[in-house]
Amino acid sequence: MADILVYSDKPGVALELASKGRELATALDMRVSAAALGEGASEQAEGLGAHGAERVYVSESEAFVGYPADVVAEALAQIARESGATRVILGSTRRGKDVAPRLAQKLGAGCVTDVSDLVVEDGAWVASRYAFGGATVAKEIAATEMQVFAVMPKTFEADDSQPGAGEVVTPALSLEPSAVRLVDRRPREGEVVNLAEAERIVGLGRGFQAREDVAAGEKLAYALEAELACTKGLADFQWMAEERVIGLSGAKTSPDVYIALGISGQIQHVVGVMGAKIIVAVNTDKDAPIFKLADYGIVGDLYEVIPALLEKIG
Amino acid sequence: MNIVVCVKTNPDLEMVRIKNREPVLDAVPYKVGDLEKNALEAAVQLREEAGEGKVTILAVGEGDRKIKETLKEALAMGADEAVIIADSSCEATDQAGIAAALAAAVEKMDEVDLVLFGEGSSDNYTGQVGPRVAERLGWPQIGFARAIGISGDNLRAERRMEDEVEVFEAPGPLVVTVVSEINEPRIPSLMNIMKAGKKPVMEWGLDDLGLASDDLAAQKQILSNLAEEQDRKNIILEGDIADQAGELINALTKEGVLGR
């Protein structure tokens, strides 16, 4: 029987993929397996089962230290063969994007990365992804028997309403250590910003006229308990950290609400907030493209609007 | 150290317009991607650090991609030579096919220590070609390097993941993809641009690589590629700023996105 295999180096993303895998498997009469690799892998097994996996292939092999792409891809190829998987769904995290094409090459599979939606139409697995810098969405199918998809985090919801058997399997892996050795690992320096998972985001654009004015945006974000973000332009000015950039060259987000302050709405930025439930735009130019994408718009000067909002929030 | 930098030309995205949801590419100029310039700059710096070796630009395709016109600038940035894989089947394929051609070209070259890529192309950003080439060559890979250097007999690369920084070492041969923060690509001087015209540019066909058109067959099909339709409320608030602010907070509270 054909099988679906899901894997992500991020345990939360792996649960999202297991849930989606379960949904697809149910509709297509397939089975879904999950892989958990590296340190702490066995602790993920129960959750993956609860989120739909029938089987969880667990390996804490030393060869996974540093998640070298060659070794992880080889392990997943072996697990895919062992489980009979014809569809492999990975998370499009950095490590996932490193591994997915390599795995696809091993399996002779067509591969789509940065997948923003995955549906089955007339038996074909149709993957959506942004193209031309986010200006368009391409719908792609792989013409190969084996297919690999790397799905953006938060594309699907983790759902434990349809648990699988969660049978833990130790795969028969035959792995050579990678020639690439991890020699140092440290927490990310600078600001820790998790835009991808933020529920509320205040985004700052070129409507801010000086570096010190960014503080007003920060104040609003603080009052709304929102994460602060910006366009690439403000990071290029070094007014804000690179980690806070949303868009093509930054984070892809899907908050409940995105408040765009002084942002014109260039596609290279807004591609990162298309998934927002509600978009609010504040801009002095009533013709700014951001208003076409907004649910609520205030045509006005952010230097007046921010204090007014702060007053109402109290 | 012999370094190959894989380069692709892309439509200038700033110039792409959308008409009836379709991207309009007529008259859009092609240029070498910014990330590929970062990879090239990293290669030139590594060759300087090593004190020996050469930097070879490896590019695929001709025709629409106008690779030849753009190669001069890349050569002027400090590469020693360029190889173009010139075959029309490179135009119609996907990342798997391009990887087949690139890997075959690297295998044809003598003693390559390192193949560099940008983390993705500026147009479609799939990030697939580098890892696929690495697998074809049977070499290990390091993705998303933000620093690269020489450490004894090893290459050393640092990368930043979602929540940590990792440093790797490997003896090579190796495939590395780079991110934009790795360097600021140099802008070649007029003198270097003039000299670049004299650098060797070789054209290899699929025959030279021992490949047939079928080896470059696409594995994927693009069903459609259209601008997204966003279904938004498009409510523009009215009144004085204080009223609008109040209305906005009320609306967001009603939507259930504030005040929890």
Task: Characterise this structure.
The complex is a heterodimer of chains A (about 325) and B (about 260). Chain A has about 325 residues and is an alpha/beta fold. Chain A has two domains: about 5-170, Rossmann fold; about 195-314, Rossmann fold (3-Layer(aba) Sandwich). In chain A, about 30% of the residues lie in helices and about 30% in strands. Chain A contains eight helices and 16 strands. Chain A has helices at about 10-30, 40-50, 70-85, 95-105, 215-225, 230-235, 265-270, 300-314, and strands at about 5, 30-35, 55-60, 85-90, 110-115, 115-120, 125-130, 135-140, 145-150, 165-170, 180-185, 200-205, 225-230, 255-260, 280-285, 295-300. In chain A, the strands form three sheets. Chain A has a seven-stranded parallel sheet, sandwiched between helices. A five-stranded parallel sheet of chain A has the order 13-12-14-15-16. Chain A starts with a strand and ends with a helix. The mean pLDDT of chain A is about 95. With about 260 residues, chain B is of the alpha/beta class. Chain B folds into two domains: about 5-215, HUPs (Rossmann fold); about 230-260, no CATH class. Chain B is about 25% helix and about 30% strand. Chain B has six helices and 15 strands. In chain B, the strands form three sheets. Chain B has a nine-stranded mixed sheet, with helices on both faces. In chain B, strands 2-5 form a two-stranded antiparallel ribbon. In chain B, strands 3-4 form a two-stranded antiparallel sheet. In chain B, β9 and β10 form a beta hairpin. In chain B, α3 crosses α4. The termini of chain B are far apart. The model of chain B has no long low-confidence stretch (mean pLDDT about 90). β8 (about 135-140) of chain A pairs antiparallel with β14 of chain B, so a sheet runs across the interface.
Number of domains of chain B: 2
Helix content of chain B: 25-40%
Number of domains of chain A: 2
Mean pLDDT over the full residue set of chain B? 91
What is the distance, rounded to the nearest whole angstrom, between the alpha carbons of the first and last residues of chain A?
60 Å
SSE succession of chain B:
EEEEEHEHEHEHEEEEHEEEH
In terms of structural class, how would the helical and strand content of chain B be classed? alpha/beta
Cα gyration radius of chain A (Å): 22 Å
- CATH topology value of the largest domain in chain A: Rossmann fold
* Percent range of helical residues of chain A: 25-40%
- The chain-level structural class of chain A is alpha/beta
CATH fold topology of the largest domain in chain B: Rossmann fold
CATH class of the largest domain in chain A: Alpha Beta
Strand elements of chain A, count: 16
Which chains share the greatest interface? A-B, 85 and 77 residues
CATH 2nd-level architecture of the largest domain in chain B: 3-Layer(aba) Sandwich
Number of strands of chain B: 15
Low-confidence stretches of chain B: none
Reported for the largest beta sheet of chain B, the result is:
9 strands, mixed
